[in-house]
Amino acid sequence: MASTIFNASSSLPATLKGLDCNTYKPTLGNLRFIASPNKKSITVPSSSSPAPKRRVLPLAKATSDVPVKTGLSDAECEAAVAAGNVPEAPPVPPTPLAPAGTPVVPSLPLSRRPRRNRRSPALRAAFQETSISPANFVYPLFIHEGEEDTPIGAMPGCYRLGWRHGLLEEVAKARDVGVNSIVLFPKVPDALKTPTGDEAYNEHGLVPRTIRLLKDKFPGIVIYTDVALDPYSSDGHDGIVREDGVIMNDETVHQLCKQAVAQARAGADVVSPSDMMDGRVGAIRDALDDAGFQHVLIMSYTAKYASSFYGPFREALDSNPRFGDKKTYQMNPANYREAMVEVHEDESEGADILLVKPGLPYLDIIRQIRDNSALPIAAYQVSGEYSMIKAGGMLKMIDEEKVMMESLLCLRRAGADIILTYFALQAARCLCGEKR
Ligand code: PBG
């Protein structure tokens, strides 16, 4: 791994002026992914690898601005100053002119002027409270049985990736820029969908097969899996649906436990129940432990809201509920306190990571959980959030890259440790100083 070292005395570049990727780079506490924004920075190699791609810029040469040395010794210089022969420094620069017509007013008697701390790029970088790095990203990837990568209409730039080829290429690209965590979402053939979603725990199914392939090719990556029945359910619900439309809780949890164990057996590092059934975290923990998977983490979708922002995802997986909605298990977007009920359950049942979903419209929930739990927090910037930013960018209504980076930074500021985002690769490239 190469580290970037800043030459503190050098001037800052113009690129730091605007609200661009550089604004979001980690400050000196986290050097790993700082692309060099600075002509006088150098990179030095250190032991670990692989290194993310970065710009390596040459050391600047002395320029004509550098004062010419006089050839006097230190002692001669000191003696000259002591004798009153003080060398000339540049004159104080004139006060810059205000435009004609600017009112002449006495200074406001302010003891505090917060703008002082924002005066220069160096000061702003020094006082930046939140940082973001590719290590914070989890990249959600859609997979299917096919050989081709099929574009997803409602999510420009996202594909249903062929599990054997396209997926591996995408993971390699992500790793190149420091994204080592992925979460898999399968598009299951209709013929394999049933009311009880049994394909979910088929050990030879698409997800377990893909996990084994990935672990073989990239042993170092962290694989998250989704635990829920909806991609496998002929009803498109996260649980088993009774005749009268009720989603059956405990029976669904039984299936989810089998699904989680099948994923763990294939090599999943983190299983992520997104179904919102009661008691599933504890039951999955027991099932994993009984099967010898004490080391597998559970990331619980703790506060998952019944949101319209999931629309593009359901198109991607063709997983729309065949009838009704998900309001008897996903949370009411109007509710804030209720998130803490879920937090207490998940904590006591042994969750390792608590997830909030969607992301940006739910920053208050992230902050509430951050302030009330010591566990790591994940935020899911969901498909609808992604597609809105993409669409706004394509229509030239917003600057896609800046809005992307700002939205991710804001999720971190609210308290998220990790972010599941379809922008993971694009944002990581941006943080590494690469443009597409
Ligand atoms: C379902 C699941 C959903 C998402 C992740 N897992 C959709 C849903 O609950 O209907 C949505 C993710 C997104 O919109 O990006 N278990």
From TrEMBL:
<protein>
    <recommendedName>
        <fullName>Delta-aminolevulinic acid dehydratase</fullName>
        <ecNumber>4.2.1.24</ecNumber>
    </recommendedName>
</protein>
<keyword id="KW-0809">Transit peptide</keyword>
<comment type="function">
    <text>Catalyzes an early step in the biosynthesis of tetrapyrroles. Binds two molecules of 5-aminolevulinate per subunit, each at a distinct site, and catalyzes their condensation to form porphobilinogen.</text>
</comment>
<dbReference type="GO" id="GO:0009507">
    <property type="term" value="C:chloroplast"/>
</dbReference>
<comment type="pathway">
    <text>Porphyrin-containing compound metabolism; protoporphyrin-IX biosynthesis; coproporphyrinogen-III from 5-aminolevulinate: step 1/4.</text>
</comment>
<keyword id="KW-0934">Plastid</keyword>
<keyword id="KW-0350">Heme biosynthesis</keyword>
<dbReference type="GO" id="GO:0008270">
    <property type="term" value="F:zinc ion binding"/>
</dbReference>
<dbReference type="GO" id="GO:0005829">
    <property type="term" value="C:cytosol"/>
</dbReference>
<feature type="region of interest" description="Disordered">
    <location>
        <begin position="96"/>
        <end position="120"/>
    </location>
</feature>
<dbReference type="InterPro" id="IPR030656">
    <property type="entry name" value="ALAD_AS"/>
</dbReference>
<dbReference type="GO" id="GO:0006783">
    <property type="term" value="P:heme biosynthetic process"/>
</dbReference>
<comment type="similarity">
    <text>Belongs to the ALAD family.</text>
</comment>
<keyword id="KW-0627">Porphyrin biosynthesis</keyword>
<keyword id="KW-0021">Allosteric enzyme</keyword>
<dbReference type="InterPro" id="IPR001731">
    <property type="entry name" value="ALAD"/>
</dbReference>
<dbReference type="GO" id="GO:0015995">
    <property type="term" value="P:chlorophyll biosynthetic process"/>
</dbReference>
<comment type="subunit">
    <text>Homooctamer.</text>
</comment>
<dbReference type="GO" id="GO:0004655">
    <property type="term" value="F:porphobilinogen synthase activity"/>
</dbReference>
<feature type="compositionally biased region" description="Low complexity">
    <location>
        <begin position="98"/>
        <end position="111"/>
    </location>
</feature>
<keyword id="KW-0456">Lyase</keyword>
<keyword id="KW-0149">Chlorophyll biosynthesis</keyword>
<keyword id="KW-0460">Magnesium</keyword>
<keyword id="KW-0479">Metal-binding</keyword>
<dbReference type="InterPro" id="IPR013785">
    <property type="entry name" value="Aldolase_TIM"/>
</dbReference>
<keyword id="KW-0150">Chloroplast</keyword>
<dbReference type="Pfam" id="PF00490">
    <property type="entry name" value="ALAD"/>
</dbReference>
